Amino acid sequence: MKIIHVVGARPNFMKVTPVHLALGDYPQIHQLLVHTGQHYDLNMSDIFFQQLGLPAPDINLEVGSGSHAVQTAQIMIRFEETVLKEKPDMVLVYGDINSTVAAALVCAKLGILVGHVEAGLRSFDRTMPEEINRLLTDQIADLLFTPSRDGDENLLREGIAQEKIHFVGNVMIDTLDRLLPLALERWQNGRFALEGLTVDQSRYVLVTLHRPSNVDEPKILTEIMAALTEISREVPVIFPIHPRTRKRLSDMNLINPKSASQNMNFLNPIGYLDFLALQQHAKVVITDSGGIQEETTYLNVPCLTVRENTERPVTVSIGTNILVGQDMGRLGSEVERIMDGCAKKGTVPPLWDGKASEKIADIIVNKY
Ligand code: UD1
After folding, report:
1. Atom of ligand 1 lying closest to residue 38 CA
2. Atom 26 in ligand 1: which residue has the minimum CA distance?
3. Which CATH fold topology does 2-170+352-367 show?
4. Does residue 268 line the site of ligand 1, with CB under 6 A?
5. Catalytic residue check, 5
6. How far apart are CA 212 and CA 244, in angstroms?
7. What is the residue with the minimal CA distance to atom 12 of ligand 1?
8. What count of other Cβ atoms lies within 10 Å of the Cβ of residue 200?
9. What is the pTM of this model?
10. What is the spatial distance between Cα 137 and Cα 122, in angstroms, rounded to a whole number?
11. Cα–Cα distance between 232 and 342 in angstroms, integer?
12. Do domains 2-170+352-367 and 178-339 have the same CATH topology?
């Protein structure tokens, strides 16, 4: 059986790695890894392959950046050629990025089986490009692997047949579980040195922001940066900056460290292991990412999400996540509560146990 995995952007790489490893245990499975090239910078792509132990892609479609239509269309055109040449029995797509929906659509039209890893998540906010990608991918996928029960419920409500849905758990946690010990070796005597910066455990706030709704609107980005600068007067802020966000901040002249407080540390995007090590010992993580809401819940680290909604509701209902929206007063007061030792306590959601990928491999091998 020939399987093509399609990945394109940073969060995909942690998801494909354990599935690729698990399927590697079955000699009858021949796997090909296709990188669409949606993310192409060394620190957005190559460093993840190295640190995760993921083999280099067999094929790189090199689509690069572009508008949603251009990027999606380019992936479809180039991936269709790949599928026609390679003739896979099944294609696996991951998460909710443009590469996910583009590859799924190509396969649906060619009659190739598609499996969607991380299916069923819904923010119910169609202004998010990822929500459109999730809805469309799930409608045309043949196997839907969900990370949480809310995913199953969403899919059933949307008319997806029960037999296509498989609740397997969270593949991102499989990777975290495997690599956390290695990541934590970066801490020496309670200190961690990175890019000329030294931080002490539990004495910093970790920030990531890249959602268009937060960074593309100058007024909102200015308010968020003002709130983060205020927080940095109390506790050091470590902020590895996504290229999209860096561009916006430079355009607005907000990235000059001298204009911020001394404790505001802007970094370039960092690798998986460094980021994991920083998450584990952060006092709190402030983010608008999807995956980081999950990782902090698993690590039992407080997370404040700068979004009005989340497609990962278990991180709020039973995890450590709190949605603060774009209310910067609320962000400040929640940080204070955490600094005062009143952080929300959480538990780990069912089947976030490091074995999701084994279940996916078992289902693929034994049912298809
Ligand atoms: C994409 C995903 C988003 C995911 C995020 C993780 C979609 C719709 N969005 O958003 O769900 O959370 O990846 O990072 O698929 N750029 C670089 N170097 C790169 C990649 C991008 O400089 O290697 C810059 C380019 O200016 C580009 C911009 O970042 O225009 C945005 O990249 P893009 O892939 O369009 O979307 P992300 O914001 O990264």
Report:
1. 34
2. 244
3. Rossmann fold (3.40.50)
4. no
5. no
6. 8
7. 289
8. 13
9. 0.97
10. 12
11. 19
12. yes
Residue boundaries of the structural domains of the chain: 2-170+352-367, 178-339
User: Ligand 1 centroid to 244 CA: how many Å?
Assistant: 7
Q: How far is CA 48 from the centre of its chain?
A: 12
Sheet holding 205-208: strands in order across?
264-267, 237-240, 205-208, 284-287, 303-305, 321-323
Which position among 5, 116, 210, 242 bears the catalytic label?
Answer: 210
Ligand 1 contact via 307 beta carbon (within 6 Å): no
Contacts of residue 95, defined as CB under 8 A and 6 or more positions apart, other chains included, come to 11, 12, 15, 117, 118
Average pLDDT over residues 175-204: 96
* Tokens standing for residue 337: 């509560």
d(CA 49, CA 143): 26
CATH of region 178-339: 3.40.50.2000
Tokens of 108: 């649906």
Q: Give tens-digit pLDDT for 231-284.
A: 999 999 999 999 999 999 999 988 765 445 679 999 999 999 999 999 999 999
Residue to mutate (ligand 1; options 61, 70, 94, 97; most atoms within 8 A of CB): 97
CB 349 within 8 A of CB 314: yes
